[in-house]
Q: What sequence folds into this?
């Protein structure tokens, strides 16, 4: 599946690709999960943001966004997978690649939906705070300690 995965800096995103990424995120987060929130937050085109995309035949199947990738505390988010691609392992491959793209000593942050705590745990993330309601969906903060940094 690795041949389906591409990595883009903001200036490498075509209008069509960015539209497809935003369309998938809207389908998953806003329509499917019935959470009306501003997914377009102004961070997708920031310097230091990277998009991982798994696509096949021009259709975006899964996407992950890393913000502040060059900083000491990058943040992974906007992990979304199309319904027809779930269970295929593609989201796991994207997450693994996202972790690998961050500096080895970086402490990586993310906000996970509570039911996905175990899934993110497979990639070395651990709970780092209390559950909170984020636009009607329970989330928890998680952190992945960098190499050489105690968990």
A:
């Amino acid at each position: 599946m690795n041949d389906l995965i591409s990595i883009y800096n903001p200036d490498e995103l075509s209008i069509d690709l960015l539209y497809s990424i935003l369309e998938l995120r809207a389908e998953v987060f806003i329509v499917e999960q019935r959470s009306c929130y501003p997914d377009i937050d102004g961070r997708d085109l920031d310097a230091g943001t990277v998009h991982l995309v798994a696509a096949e035949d021009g259709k975006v199947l899964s996407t992950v966004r890393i913000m502040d990738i060059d900083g000491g505390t990058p943040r992974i988010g906007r992990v979304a997978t199309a319904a027809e691609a779930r269970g295929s392992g593609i989201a796991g491959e994207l997450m693994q690649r996202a972790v690998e793209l961050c500096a080895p000593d970086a402490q990586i942050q993310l906000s996970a939906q509570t039911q996905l705590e175990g899934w993110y745990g497979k990639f070395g993330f651990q709970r780092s705070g209390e559950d909170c309601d984020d636009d009607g969906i329970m989330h928890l903060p998680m952190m992945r300690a960098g190499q050489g940094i105690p968990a």
Observations:
- Strands lie at 5-8, 50-56, 59-67, 75-81, 108-113, 126-127, 132-134, 137-144.
- Residues 9 and 124 are 25 Å apart (CA to CA).
- The chain is about 25% helix and 30% strand.
